[in-house]
Each structure stands twice: as C-alpha cells, then as structure tokens.
Amino acid sequence: MTLVDTAPDPAHRARRALRAPGVRMGGLALLVAAVACAGLFAGRGVTPEGVRAVLLGVGDDPTAEHIVLQLRLPRMLVALVAGACLGVAGLVLQSALRNPLAGPEVTGVTPGAVLGAVTATGLGLAGWESPTAVVVAACVGGFAGAGLLWLLAGRDRGDPEQTAVYGVLVSAVLAGLTAVVLLVAPGELGSVVQWLIGSTEGRVWQHWNLLWPWAAFWGAAAWLLAGPLTLLRCGDEQAAAAGLATGRGRGAALVCAVALTAGAVSAVGALGFVGLLVPHLALAVFGADLRVTLPGAALLGAAVVCGADTVAQLLSPLLATAFDADRLTLPVGALTTCVGAGLLMVVARRRADER
Q1: 343 Cβ partners below 8 Å, 6+ apart?
Q2: How many CA atoms, within 13 angstroms, populate the side-chain half-sphere of residue 333?
Q3: How far apart are CA 118 and CA 124, in angstroms?
C-alpha cells in the first residue's frame, strides 16, 4: 500500500495562518502604529529630524518640543480614539438595527451631538476655551437625537427598516436646527465650522483626558454586548429562540452606540462616513463573530481617522500653494467625507448587483 502525504504544503500553511484572526489583528495593530508615527511626523513647524530628536530626548529646541509633545501627540491620540469610537459605534448600530446602511450619521446621533456643540459655542452657552463644557453639550445633544428617534419610532422600534427611515428624518430635522443656530449667531461660524465638517485641529491634552476614559468605559460595554449583538444580526426570532430579550439587548446596544458617537463628535466633530463604512471593512476582514470584529472595528476606525488626518496635514501645504494662501488647513472630515462617499457608492452598487 502506498502512503500519500496529505499534510498541507508550506504555502498552504502560511495562507491558513494569515487567515487566523490573531494574525490579522496583529497586522492591523502594526498598521495603527505606523499611521500614528506618520501623524507625529506630518505637519508644519518641525522637520522630521526635529521630531526624531524630540522623541529620542536629544533635542534642545523648546519650540519643537512644544509642537511635538503638546500639539501633535495629543492630536494624534485623539484622532485614534475618536476613530475607534466611531468604528465600534457604527458596527453596534448596524448589528442592533440589522441594517448595513445604518450609521451614526443617519440615526440622529451625530447630528444631535453636532447641534449640542454648535449651540454651546455659537450661542455662548459654553466658553470655547472650555472643552469640558463642549463635550457635555455634545453628549447631551447626541442622546437627545437618539431619544427623539426612539420617541418617533414608537411601536416600529422593532422594525429595522422603519427605524432607519425615522433616523434619516430625525437627522434632517437636527441638521435644520443647526442651520438655524448658525443664522442666529453668524459671527460664530468660524468657531463652529469644525463641528459641521470634523477636524482634529487644536486638539490638546485636555481633550484627550476627557475622551479616553469615556471611550474605554463604553467600548468595554460594547464588547460585553458582543454575544447579544451577534444573535441580533441573525434576526429577532433566532435571538429570542436562543433566550435573548431582544428589546433589552437592542436598547443597551443603542445606548452604547450613542455614547461612543457623542464622545467622538464632542472631540473632533462630525467625521462623515467613518461609522458607516468601517463596519463593512471589519466584517470583511474578521467575520461575523463580534467578539473579534468589534476590536477589529476599533483598530480600523483608529487607522482610518489617524491616517486621514495625516494625509490632510500633508495636503494642506500643497493646497495653500495652489490657491496662493498664506495658510490653508484641510479638515480631516472633508477628506473622510469625499473618500467615504465614493466607497459608499461602490458598496451600494455591489448590493444592487447581488440582488
């Protein structure tokens, strides 16, 4: 009898290892570290050699130390955590509502948080120099937007499609109220435009100190809901058959998503399409087990926002030169919106072709 060697060849074993979630998570963590380092080296005022000297502790330029340690470092950290919050919030929303096109932008959460921040700054209800007051106002607005959606949906809360439709209506109403605030206080347009577009410009350690405990708490709460969310993705009947109280599970998930989105928006404003598209990437990379996919969505969101912020800083001097401007800053939200809109059209086209 001839024995046949059925052991997989080395190439097959390598491909199988690359499919392991741990390997993918490790590779994604390296990507996040790479874009974070790039964020420290991007920008004006300090050369890459100066940044390297500051990081190694061999520099003697106080201006370079201030720019790197007091401006670029907190900005990079805030971008990472805000992106992680939006990635997780989007995945939680899409899983709880069973709608792949649900996201913080179209469920009233982001527009509500923006309305809170704009109202606080535009009408003088909170001093611009106080990030704490703006964070509180944005969080209140985010929860108010979600509460309005909850009340408007009424008995249709269990219908994902109807809830998504009501979310679009609520978002439109809140956007209109934001425009009214800007009409009442037109002189404050320059100070609130970052909340409308999304920007990491001017983020300092105070923003970081306010954001990371909030993100850590609600991120952990979302991960604890990974099991119920995985069941909800299968449908309410299957989830109920498995013993899950679907109403309570969905309600808890929505609270987590609202809190994470409000925290991110209060720090960096409305970054378009991050919470909508990052979950699709996370599911494609890590699969439907949300115990793995939720951390993956956090890493992907962090990489997307921090990477977009780095690209925006690199493009800003080029745009300033092209438009003959002394100083022109490209908001990271403008970049994520443009790129995200293109990707959304690709996703929608693929769904149409699948049908």
Answers
A1: 273, 277
A2: 21
A3: 9
Cα 316 to Cα 83: distance, rounded to the nearest angstrom: 21
What is residue 6's DSSP assignment? -
Contacts of 66 (CB under 8 A, 6+ apart): none
Domains of the chain: 32-354 (1.10.3470.10)
* Amino acid letter, 292: V
State both tokens at 292. 């793995």
In the chain, how many H helices and how many E strands?
16, 0
User: Looking at the chain, how many residues does it have?
Assistant: 355
Q: Provide the token pair at 168.
A: 């679009």
- Compute, in degrees rounded to 10, the torsion defined by CA atoms 97, 232, 305, 333: 0
Contacts of 131 (CB under 8 A, 6+ apart): 204, 206, 207, 210
In DSSP notation, 199-217 reads: --TT--HHHHHHHHHHHHH
Q: What are the average pLDDT values for consecutive 10-residue runs of the chain, which has 355 residues?
A: 48 51 89 94 87 86 91 95 96 87 80 86 61 77 85 68 78 88 69 78 88 94 94 86 86 88 87 89 91 95 95 84 75 87 74 62
Contact 231, 288 (CB under 8 A): no
DSSP 25-71: HHHHHHHHHHHHHHHHH-SSSS-HHHHHHHHHT----HHHHHIIIII
Instruction: Kindly state the DSSP code that residue 3 receives in the 8-state scheme.
Output: P
Q: How many CA atoms lie within 13 A of 48 on its CB side?
A: 6
Closest CA to 97 of 161, 33, 51, 32: 161
208 closest CA partner among 151, 156, 135:
135
Tokens of 83: 């992106």
Tell me the Ramachandran region of residue 230: left when phi exceeds 0, alpha when psi lies from -120 to 50, beta otherwise: alpha
Query: CA-CA distance, 301 to 274, in Å (whole number)?
Result: 7
